Amino acid sequence: MSHLMNTYARLPVAFTHGEGVWLFDETGKRYLDALSGIAVSTLGHNHPRLVRAISEQAASVLHTSNLYRIPRQEELGDRIAALSGMDEVFFCNSGCEANEAAIKLARFYGHKKHIDHPEIIVMENAFHGRTLATLSATGNRKTQAGFEPLVTGFVRVPYKDISAIRAVGEHNHNVVAVMLEMVQGEGGINIADDDFQRELRAICDERGWLLICDEVQCGIGRTGPWFGFQQSGIKPDIMTLAKGLGSGVPIGACVTAGRAAGLFGPGNHGSTFGGNPLACAAGLATIAEIEDKALRDNAVRVGEAIRNGMREALAGVSGVVDIRGRGLMIGIELDRPCGDLVRQALEAGLLINVTADRVIRLLPALVFTEQDAGALVSALAPLVRKFLGQ
Ligand code: PMP
């Protein structure tokens, strides 16, 4: 009997090693990894630059404490500020922890403006994490069920509904922020278009609200720009990062700009492991490699190749509702629940995921090549056809 708490419906496979976009199980069978640990393994498996960076860091200073200066953290903070045009970074260890920091910051900002019960507008189908505040911000009743009372102070609107956001602003004077993903990941690869992004920025400016972008899944070059909001040229007041930032080493970040910067002082927030040298070395190596190898351009090109390939291979197949995405964040929506495909793909040596019941989700490493895209399409399209009985 396993002594692990039963929190995951795990597939019956364990990987012993990986190489680039391939993972190998105990029997030596290889799998094309089109999920990269859910947008985590940015550089693929066993990437020499990442391995070198974390080995060297582990051999010098592994962990000290945020009681002292951490040069690697300062370096990574500078890199993220330069890439985003933002001002300050708080480092933590995961996406939910980054979002907790963002929620606390927004409340703190509200209190400074003498709003005693600050509220944050959040979206339907959003996913922000599973700690209590981030679970409460998440827009999925099934995920929340059984954990009531949820944290109060969130107002929910349909995703991308600018009129609904305006309407909340008309009557609710406790609103201090709007929080959303520019591409919803768990929600089924739903994309906030440029016009919506700009209008949202304008409303936040009009009302003095903070715009909080959760870039945990769509950030770090996955959709083409470094961050999803850069698609439209806007800048949020707060953004959160995690997942792909460390390419497999746990790290999270809450990044602020303008009026959201300079709010916290010593004692307002903290995290023992946050921004430890090892995680920051991984973040620095990840960013450097994305830049040196133009992996953001690669994400755009290869993402397009995957979508086009799937469209071609599934042309005329009924039951395929939509094939969408940005860069290497891809959703193939079917007209029925398709969770069974995950196991069928595994048997065929392909790692994929299904989210929002009906959306096949592909989140390959940014090093995925056009050849890998071809292999993915050749493996996945027949499974989808078969699943749909065609
Ligand atoms: N925000 C988004 C957009 C996510 O996709 C996730 C994880 N799926 C999280 C937050 C939570 O991240 P973590 O699991 O690292 O807490």
TrEMBL record:
It is an enzyme of class 2 (transferase). PROSITE patterns: AA_TRANSFER_CLASS_3. Keywords: Amino-acid biosynthesis, Aminotransferase, Arginine biosynthesis, Cytoplasm, Pyridoxal phosphate, Transferase. The keyword Disulfide bond does not apply. It comes from the Bacteria. One of its GO terms (molecular function) is transaminase activity. InterPro entries: AcOrn/SuccOrn_fam, Aminotrans_3, Aminotrans_3_PPA_site, Class-III_PLP-dep_AT, PyrdxlP-dep_Trfase, PyrdxlP-dep_Trfase_major, PyrdxlP-dep_Trfase_small. It catalyses: N(2)-acetyl-L-ornithine + 2-oxoglutarate = N-acetyl-L-glutamate 5-semialdehyde + L-glutamate. Pathway: Amino-acid biosynthesis; L-arginine biosynthesis; N(2)-acetyl-L-ornithine from L-glutamate: step 4/4. The keyword Cytoplasm applies. Its EC number is 2.6.1.11. It holds the Pfam family Aminotran_3. It is found in: Cytoplasm. Its main location: cytoplasm. Belongs to the class-III pyridoxal-phosphate-dependent aminotransferase family. ArgD subfamily. This is Acetylornithine aminotransferase. It comes from Aromatoleum evansii (Azoarcus evansii).
